Amino acid sequence: MNAILTGYRTSVRLIEATDWLLPTLARLAFASVLLIYFWNSGLTKLGDGISGLWTPSAGAYAQIFPRAFEAVGYDTDAFGFYHHAVVVAGTWAEFVLPALILVGLMTRIAAFAMIGFIVVQSLTDIYGHAAAAGAWFDRFADAPVLDQRALWILLLIVLVIKGAGPFSFDRALKSINA
Which residue windows are transmembrane per the record (predicted)? Predict the structure, then answer.
């Protein structure tokens, strides 16, 4: 039994010595699973041409404010500054935050902001688009809102706690300032 415990403790020490591995794999998993998802979602919200960065498409309002957009007869001009600012900020966030996580720049802040974004996205899907939330602690692991997004958030929590890891701009900037 002592040999088993000694082997276990040695293995644990080796794993704990690879502190760089978890944040690196978390960023890799984010890039491979969620980066393009968010960028494609952001692309659906852009208006025409370069001015589309400031004048989102009607679909952006339909995605972010579905019930309010329906209530105004799908007329974007009926919305005020608040709605416009939220749609533009949400659209930009879908590009900027994943890019920051990808390169490892301001990773903790970007990951924390992405968690907030995913929470708002999930609430909009459930209450605005009437998507089925699913349930935790059931036998199904494929609820698109609660199950999948809980895993997305867990991945981002790793980055909030551990940072970006050694292969990042955060680490490079830290060594410059040190």
Answer: 20-39, 81-102, 109-130, 150-169
Q: pLDDT tens across 110-146, in order?
A: 999 999 999 999 999 999 999 989 888 888 888 889 9
Q: Measuring CA to CA, how many Å separate 57 from each of 96, 123, 130?
A: 18, 21, 22
pLDDT tens across 33-73, in order?
Answer: 999 999 999 999 999 999 888 999 999 999 999 999 999 99
Residue 73 phi, psi dihedral angles, 5° rounding: 70, 30
> With b meaning 16 or more CB within 10 Å and e meaning fewer, what string describes 46-57?
bbeeeeeeeebb
Cβ-based burial of 29 (10 A; exposed 0-12, middle 13-18, buried ≥19): middle
Residue in this structure with the two tokens 């199950």, named with its chain if needed: 147
